[in-house]
């Protein structure tokens, strides 16, 4: 008898690992190899296969191939046996018992995203997977997913890809079983929650371009001003659900987290209850935040404007003119930019600015005292008024001083006067002495002694009769100031001083100067007996020498005379005393000094437009002219060469009056008195 095979094993392909469990191959065409240990006495081998196990190759050799395509279900073992055969008979059986077992339950399901609502409704997907189960078909996994979820691609492996629609809004489970030819395992399960998104952390309203939060709605109610509402981003949110109060209109932004609104249709006035705007985050599952984030916007009346400021406290100064006064307040927080309502006293007219923080107002001459008042407003309502009293008080101030000649006045001569404007004054009533004629630029044809003018300069021609004063009354439409009197006189003012040396010798020349008198045309000097005038008679500066005997108590005397031959009181110098001539040094050689001829005359004099100078001189030195009015004010200075001296025209721009012209060339000097008609 032949010897039985020592061993019997089943393998899969090139691997040499023995297979003992056939569950993964039952019902499949997978080709497996059965190998019996060769027997030295065998000429062939006889195989016994269970029902449904199909031999594919090998015949009656010790190595055959089979599959388990026809094996039915069940868990009993499958025995496969083989005998060695020769001419003497068969050996005993060698049997391989193959187990038939269900695959194990898959282990824990792993996922790439535990919050599927974060991707629900989008193209994003979630992957679920389990570790491959030993003994299960490679494609023997059966998956189920919740309602609203879809498996993308293969659904039989140990890993699936799932998308979630926005209809997924109820919790469910992902399950998986493994299977083989024996049957199906118990399922592994992973709960899938439909989770609402978080609440937006913040909600703010701003007005571009500023990033400062707006918390008061008053300034924007009933306006089309566009404001921006911004909710903080929420992870997993695909949109935002906004709740707006009645009258608040969404302008843009849709269901985004940033929208623009206006308050155009919020009814006004609406009281002071807050306006609540709220927002919730919405995720791909269509679920909203459990609670809303709310922005409570206050609705408050604007504050009362602070003090009204003005550019002019006394409006009487401009009443009746086109000049305006400006009234203003500081902008009120929470008020409309154009929400300022102004009222002014009767007779006042708002020229510009109504509705703003600043107005320009004109006043009629007959305006009534009252108040300037202003309120601020917004969509909630109007504030209390702020007022500024406007009084009808003249406050006109008369001129303090009068500029012009007021003494030594001559009848028939025009004298020019001017004064500084008095505070709050619009016009001035100027009254000259009886019999005088007062004129001004706007009263040029007046023929009497009274004018009313807004000019600050006037001219008086005095009469031959006595004169006393000029009266000026400053006025505005609200009243007048007391008359201001300026004394005028035909009498010459006094020469106050005569300056010069008091100790004189017989050798020298001495200069004496009388103080100038307004209106003086000439100065007449009287010198002591024995004295000689060198130059200056007719002017207020005299050069004298004293070669003769000087009497005791000798003085110089001088008086000033105006154009109408009125003279001042005679003024004397200090008493003169005799002193000795200085002793010449031996080394000094006295030389006779010959003076250069020098004379100058003005013509015509008096003049109407300009006068010229007629010079006689042999000097080539530069000539200088200085012109003074009768109060000693320097009017003009000119310097020119001798070649130009006879071509000078002087005084064409001077006003009518009397002028002193001092002409100098080197040491020579001449004073001329000229009159412009």
Keywords:
677 residues, rod-shaped, 7 domains, Immunoglobulin-like, single chain, mainly beta, five-stranded antiparallel β-sheet
Description of the structure:
It is built from no helices and 53 strands. It is rod-shaped, with a radius of gyration of 64 Å. The chain folds into 7 domains: 8-98, Immunoglobulin-like (Sandwich); 110-192, Immunoglobulin-like, CATH 2.60.40; 203-297, Immunoglobulin-like (Sandwich), CATH 2.60.40; 309-390, Sandwich (Immunoglobulin-like); 414-487, no CATH class; 498-578, Immunoglobulin-like (Sandwich); 598-676, Macroglobulin (MG2) domain (Immunoglobulin-like), CATH 2.60.40. It is an all-beta fold. The strands form 15 sheets. Strands 31, 33, 35, 36 and 37 form a 5-stranded antiparallel beta sheet that branches. Strands 1-2-5-4 form a 4-stranded antiparallel beta sheet, with no helix packed on it.
Instruction: Tell me the total number of β-strands.
Output: 53
Named CATH topology of the largest domain: Immunoglobulin-like
Quick one: overall form? rod-shaped
Assigned CATH architecture of the largest domain: Sandwich
Number of domains: 7
Number of helices: 0
- Broad structural category: mainly beta
Q: How is the biggest beta sheet arranged?
A: 5 strands, antiparallel
Rg over alpha carbons: 64 Å
Beta-strand percentage? 35-45%
* Measured distance between first and last alpha carbons: 178 Å
Give the CATH level 1 class of the largest domain: Mainly Beta
Helix content: under 10%
Low-confidence stretches: 585-594
Global mean pLDDT: 91
């Amino acid at each position: 008898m032949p010897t039985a095979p020592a061993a019997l094993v089943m393998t899969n392909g090139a691997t040499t690992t023995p297979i003992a469990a056939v569950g993964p191959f039952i019902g499949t065409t997978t080709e497996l190899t059965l190998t019996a240990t060769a027997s030295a006495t065998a000429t062939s081998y006889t195989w016994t296969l269970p029902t449904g196990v199909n031999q594919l190759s090998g015949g009656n050799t010790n190595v055959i191939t089979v599959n388990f395509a026809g094996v039915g279900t069940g868990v009993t073992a499958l025995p496969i046996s083989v005998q060695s055969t020769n001419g003497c008979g068969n050996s005993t059986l060698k049997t391989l018992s193959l187990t038939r077992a269900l695959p194990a339950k898959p282990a824990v399901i792993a996922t790439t995203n535990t919050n599927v609502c974060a991707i629900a409704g989008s193209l994003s997907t979630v992957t679920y997977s389990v570790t491959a189960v030993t003994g299960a078909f490679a494609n023997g996994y059966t998956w189920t997913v919740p309602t609203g979820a879809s498996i993308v691609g293969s659904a039989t492996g140990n890993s699936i890809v799932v998308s979630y629609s926005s209809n997924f809004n109820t919790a469910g489970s992902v399950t998986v079983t493994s299977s083989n030819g024996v049957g199906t395992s118990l399922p592994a399960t992973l709960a899938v929650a439909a989770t609402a998104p978080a609440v937006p952390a913040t909600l703010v309203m701003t007005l571009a371009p500023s990033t400062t939060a707006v918390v008061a709605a008053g300034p924007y109610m009933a306006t089309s001003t566009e404001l921006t509402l911004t909710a903080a981003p929420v992870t997993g949110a695909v949109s935002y659900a906004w709740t707006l109060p009645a009258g608040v209109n969404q302008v843009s932004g849709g269901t985004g987290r940033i929208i623009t609104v206006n308050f155009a249709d919020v009814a006004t006035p609406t009281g002071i209850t807050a306006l609540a705007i709220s927002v919730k985050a919405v995720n791909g599952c269509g679920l909203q935040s459990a609670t809303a984030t709310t922005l409570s916007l206050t609705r408050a009346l604007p504050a009362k404007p602070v003090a009204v400021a003005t550019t002019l406290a006394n409006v009487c100064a401009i009443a009746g003119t086109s000049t305006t006064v400006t009234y203003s307040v500081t902008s009120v927080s929470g008020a409309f930019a154009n929400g300022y309502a102004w009222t002014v006293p009767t007779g006042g007219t708002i020229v510009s600015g109504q509705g703003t923080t600043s107005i320009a107002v004109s006043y009629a001459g007959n305006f009534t005292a009252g108040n300037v008042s202003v309120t601020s407003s917004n969509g909630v309502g109007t504030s209390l008024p702020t007022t500024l009293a406007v009084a009808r008080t003249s406050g006109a101030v008369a001129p303090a001083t009068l500029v012009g000649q007021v003494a030594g006045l001559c009848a028939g001569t025009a004298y020019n006067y001017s004064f500084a404007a008095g505070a709050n004054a619009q016009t001035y009533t100027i009254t000259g002495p009886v019999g005088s004629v007062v004129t001004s630029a706007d009263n040029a044809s007046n023929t009497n002694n009274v004018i009313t003018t807004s000019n600050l300069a006037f001219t008086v021609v005095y009469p031959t009769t006595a004169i006393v004063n000029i009266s000026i009354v400053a006025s505005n439409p609200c009243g007048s100031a007391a008359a201001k009197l300026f004394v005028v006189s035909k009498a010459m003012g006094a020469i106050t001083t005569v300056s010069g040396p008091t100790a004189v010798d017989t050798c020298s020349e001495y200069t004496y100067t009388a103080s100038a008198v307004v209106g003086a045309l000439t100065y007449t000097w009287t010198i002591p007996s024995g004295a000689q005038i060198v130059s200056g008679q007719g002017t207020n500066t005299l050069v004298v020498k004293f070669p003769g005997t000087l009497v005791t108590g000798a003085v110089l005397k001088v008086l000033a005379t105006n154009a109408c031959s009125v003279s001042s009181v005679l003024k004397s110098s200090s008493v003169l005393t005799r002193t000795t001539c200085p002793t010449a040094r031996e080394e000094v050689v006295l030389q006779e000094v010959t003076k250069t001829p020098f004379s100058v005359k003005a013509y015509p004099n008096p003049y109407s437009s300009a006068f010229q100078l007629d010079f006689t001189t042999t000097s080539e030195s530069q000539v200088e002219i200085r012109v003074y009015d009768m109060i000693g004010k320097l009017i003009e200075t000119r310097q020119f060469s001798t070649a130009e001296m006879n071509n000078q025209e002087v005084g064409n721009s001077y006003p009518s009056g009397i002028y002193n012209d001092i002409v100098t060339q080197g040491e020579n000097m001449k004073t001329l008195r000229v009159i412009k008609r």
